[in-house]
TrEMBL record:
The keyword Endoplasmic reticulum does not apply. One of its GO terms (biological process) is defense response. PANTHER family: NB-ARC DOMAIN-CONTAINING PROTEIN-RELATED, RPP4C3. This is AAA+ ATPase domain-containing protein. Residues 172-307 form the AAA+ ATPase domain. InterPro entries: AAA+_ATPase, Apaf_helical, At4g27190-like_LRR, LRR_dom_sf, NB-ARC, P-loop_NTPase, Plant_NBS-LRR, WH-like_DNA-bd_sf. Keywords: ATP-binding, Coiled coil, Leucine-rich repeat, Nucleotide-binding, Plant defense, Repeat. The keyword Nucleus does not apply. Belongs to the disease resistance NB-LRR family. It holds the Pfam family NB-ARC. Residues 26-60 form a coiled coil.
Length: 932
């Protein structure tokens, strides 16, 4: 019995000891596991926060450093590993004995140790995330020199071009000048120099800016800063911007800065240009050799008239071989002679004669050219240019003339937005027999095309912008002022012109701002004024005097303000009852109730202004066809029923910063803000831009109209840089399930989209089959982010599924974070699929083994591939008949990084993209001798 008691006592003692240890280890284990779980949550919060910042920066088109992308990938993997540990190791914490779970002290100790180590690793990652003060940088613009109209390789220009190229390679030469009269081709020559130095890799960067008259320092600084990836937009002071630019330029080892069209001596230090490096040089163009001399040009090259034969060849290039016919040939010689053998004059006159084989038309052109009298204030060498431009102007229809003169109201070398021309034109009554804004857009775009064809307008960076050659603008300004009652003056000139009654009978006045000009006269005495433009400029927003419009209120139809201060709204603004277009872009605004008094408004543009709310009085604008609130960062309130009251609205653009959509479906009287359902009441709506932060905010039954012709709609995220692509129909959808597409009426819009970004989809396996079996025929840009369900972009193994060509016009494809993507293309693609694809980015696609077959890859211009764990080769499944040297003639940019399993750039197989694994020959070399 004593033995039993002793044993029992020992057992109890051991059990007590075990219990104490058990409790202590349980306490440690529980604490370590809870700590790990908390760290996982903190890391996920940090990752989501950083991911949001990255997406926002990507949306602005900025570069994301590799270390940030790397951290996001590592954080995702570590977080997933810790989560798996927490979910999968519960059974290791106990052992089974006779169907009873007994705590396993050994496992607890080990698990606690593992949890502590993981928590430390997670804490390191959390601290690393806190170190990312900046997650992006503005990319340096790749220098692409697009010659407007093409560079003509004239013999008289060849020697000059060769001499300039030699001078650029001379260590003793840092400043080079090109001079000649307007329209002779200085800018064209300078751009050809830029193209050749980029091609020859003489400089790593080329920055081009136009100086114009008077010089716009702010624009010049921005042009140069963008080329070197420097962000100075937040700096308002010219000296501060100059200082930042100068410091950055000192770090450039090789850059060519082209200063085009210098009229007077320019202080480069004031701009921020002070090149101290041997590899950095300046190329300047001017109409005056004296100006280049004052700018200390080391070498100066004159550009003279074309020879008679060169001028005739240029003319022939434009009008065609009809000049070889005897009856036309003599006329052609005379026309070219009247143009003074000046390239610009020849292009302007030859444009209307292109493909015209009517002899009397040619004779009439020559007669008109001879009869035109040049103004006496134009220097002799430019009179031929004036006469040629005047001839072309006189041959235009009335609408074309007015649009050209309207463009001349903008500053020299200013980028002119075609949308501005449309808004002004609608309010001003410029377009005849146009009933809708969509028709007005078509009309203005067709007019722009005609003026470009006649070389009277130049193309901008894309189709949304145009420019004027400075010589053509000079002529147009003269015509507008002397014959059209249209004047372009600076603020400093305005009061003097008004005192001399020069502007008394004006129909249109354009005010150009320059440094130091910030004071408008108290009253504008122009009773016939129909159009008033106040352009943005340097300095603070300009205040508008109280009585400014009292002498112009009766006829004013279009009013454009950029960066005006309207905190105190001028009473005279309330009385503009005939106003049809009002644009207050970038203006300082507080109380905008006055807008409700302007009952004839058709177009209201408040973009980028400081407006905080859209008031109830806007309901009174029963004729309003366009409302633009884009870029209004402070907009928090759109009064209920304001939007739905605007029954004639055709175009609606809501600020991307507005996120106060009313969620509850309640009576209007109980709502505090706008509801998405209000948009459904707009039966005339054809254009729409808005962001819905969350699809859940959509009222029950709400659907986007399938009748939209132009749209920029984002569900769950910002549109960002897509604004600048020129894409008119785009969707950015951060949703999880396809059913949400149907619920919101987005399926038909998606199939018609030109740009599509899908983020977070989990139930889409085959993108084309699941989303648009017809192959996305209109899509130009596709981005897929974080969609773990996607296995294929297009699966054509079963031809019954995909009888149509897929992505026939797609230009850009970006795939990011598709962890289960196995192939972009699976099976043999229909003919003409991906035929326009030029840019491809593949990032963090863990299961992808190659990118594209050779047939598609040969057409690509830019390829970026990174952080793909299973990527073995970039080009997969090259056919046997392609063996031998394989060229990639279109490839301009290739970036490969963090591809741990990649052993070969290109693999060989008998069948192209027919499925199965690729056959990798040898890990060395990466490209091999066959890749060119």
């Amino acid at each position: 019995m004593e033995f039993i008691i002793g044993v029992g006592t020992a057992i109890v003692s051991k059990l007590a000891e075990y219990t104490v240890v058990l409790a202590r280890r349980l306490r440690h284990y529980t604490s370590d596991v809870d700590n790990l779980r908390a760290r996982v949550e903190q890391l996920n919060d940090a990752r989501q926060n950083l991911q949001g910042r990255v997406e926002e920066a990507s949306g602005r088109g900025e570069d994301i450093p590799d270390e940030v992308q790397n951290w996001l990938t590592n954080a995702r993997d570590i977080s997933q590993g810790a989560t798996d540990f927490l979910n999968n190791n519960r059974d290791r914490a106990s052992i089974s004995c006779c169907s009873v779970q007994i705590p396993n002290l050994v496992s607890w100790r080990k698990l606690s140790r593992e949890a502590r180590q993981m928590a430390e690793d997670l804490q390191c990652e959390i601290q690393a995330a806190q170190g990312f003060k900046e997650v992006s940088s503005r990319p340096a613009l790749q220098t692409v020199i697009a010659m407007r109209g093409g560079y003509e390789d004239f013999g008289s220009r060849k020697k000059i071009l060769g001499d300039i190229m030699k001078a650029l390679q001379d260590r003793n030469v840092s400043r080079i000048g090109i001079y000649g009269i307007g329209g002779i081709g200085k800018t064209t020559l300078a751009k050809e120099v830029a193209r050749q130095v980029v091609e020859a890799k003489l400089f790593t960067q080329v920055a081009i800016t136009t100086v114009s008259r008077p010089p716009n320092f702010s624009k010049m600084q921005t042009d140069i800063a963008e080329k070197i990836g420097l962000d100075i937009e937040g700096l308002k002071s010219i000296p501060e911007r100059a200082n930042r630019l100068q410091r950055q330029l000192k770090q450039q080892k090789s850059i060519l800065i082209i200063l085009d069209d210098i009229w007077d001596e320019l202080d480069l230090i004031e701009v921020g240009i002070h090149l101290e490096n041997e590899g950095c040089k300046i190329l300047m163009t001017s109409r005056s050799q004296d100006v280049l001399r004052s700018m200390d040009a080391d070498e100066k090259f004159p550009v003279d008239d074309l020879s008679a034969s060169e001028a005739m060849n240029l003319f022939r290039t434009i009008v065609g071989d009809i000049v070889e016919q005897p009856e036309f040939h003599s006329l052609a010689i005379e026309v070219v002679r009247e143009c003074g053998c000046l390239p610009l004059a020849i292009k302007v006159v030859a444009g209307p004669l292109k493909r015209q084989n009517i002899l009397v038309l040619w004779k009439d052109t020559l007669n008109k050219l001879r009869r035109i009298i040049s103004p006496t204030n134009i220097a002799e060498p430019l009179r031929e240019v004036y006469r040629s431009i005047r001839l072309s102007y006189d041959s235009l229809a009335d609408e074309d003339k007015l649009l050209l003169l309207l463009c001349s109201l903008y500053g020299e070398d200013t980028d002119i937005e075609v949308e501005d021309l449309r808004m002004i034109g609608v309010g001003w009554g410029l377009f005849q027999n146009v009933s809708t804004l969509a028709d007005a857009r078509t009309r203005v775009e067709s007019l722009v095309v005609k003026l470009k064809d006649r070389c009277l307008l130049l193309g901008g960076d894309d189709d949304d912008w145009v420019k004027m050659h400075d010589v053509i603008r000079d002529v147009a300004v003269s015509i507008a002022s002397n014959e059209g009652g249209m004047h372009s003056v600076t603020i400093n000139e305005l009061e003097d012109c008004q005192n001399k009654k020069k502007l008394k009978d004006s129909k249109a006045i354009s005010i150009l701002r320059h440094p130091g000009s910030n004071q408008l006269p108290e009253r504008l005495e122009c009773s016939e004024l129909e159009l008033f433009l106040l352009h943005s400029g340097q300095g603070d927003p300009i205040p508008i005097p109280n009585h400014f419009f009292e002498g112009s209120k009766d006829q004013l139809k279009s009013l454009f303000f950029e960066r005006a201060n309207l905190v105190s709204v001028p009473p005279s603004l309330h009385s503009l009852q005939n106003l049809q277009t009002l644009r207050l872009r970038g203006c300082v605004l507080e109380d905008v109730n006055f807008i409700g008094d302007l009952k004839n408004l058709q177009i209201l543009d408040l973009s980028e202004s400081t407006i905080k709310q859209l008031p109830v009085k806007v309901r009174q604008l029963s004729r309003l066809q366009l409302l633009n609130l884009e870029g209004c960062k402070d907009l928090k309130l759109i009064e209920p029923d304001v939007i739905s009251s605007l029954k004639q609205l055709e175009e609606l653009y809501i600020s991307e910063y507005f996120d106060k959509w009313e969620v509850e479906e309640v009576d209007v009287s109980k709502r505090s803000n706008v509801n998405l359902a209000e948009i459904e009441n707009l039966q005339q709506l054809t254009s729409l831009s808005l962001i819905v932060p969350d699809a859940k905010t959509s009222p029950k039954g709400f659907k986007f109209s399938g009748n939209l012709e132009r749209y920029r709609i984002s569900i769950g995220g910002p549109l960002g840089y897509w604004y600048a692509t020129g894409i008119s129909r785009l969707l950015h959808l951060k949703i999880r399930e396809r059913s949400q597409l149907t619920a919101l009426g987005l399926e038909s819009l998606m199939k018609r989209s030109e740009g599509l970004l899908l983020d977070g989809l989990i139930d889409v396996k085959n993108v084309v089959y699941d989303l648009d079996s017809e192959g996305f025929c209109e899509l130009k840009r596709l981005e897929l982010w974080n969609s773990d369900g996607v296995q294929y972009i297009v699966d054509c193994v079963d031809q019954q599924i995909h009888p149509h060509k897929t992505f026939p016009v797609l230009d850009t494809l970006k795939l990011w974070g598709l962890r289960n993507l196995e192939r972009i293309c699976h099976g043999k693609l229909p003919e003409d699929s991906f035929k326009n694809l030029r840019q491809v980015t593949v990032w963090s696609c863990d299961k992808l083994k190659n990118v594209f077959p050779l047939s598609i890859f040969k057409r690509l211009h830019s390829v970026k591939v990174g952080y793909c764990k299973m990527m073995e080769e970039i080009v997969g499944h090259v056919r046997s008949e392609d063996k031998g040297a394989v060229e990639f003639p279109e490839l301009r940019f290739l970036k490969l990084g963090n591809l741990p399993k990649m052993v070969k750039f290109m693999s060989w197989s008998e069948a192209e993209a027919a499925g199965g694994s690729s056959s990798v020959e040898s890990p060395d070399p990466l490209f091999g001798e066959k890749v060119i």
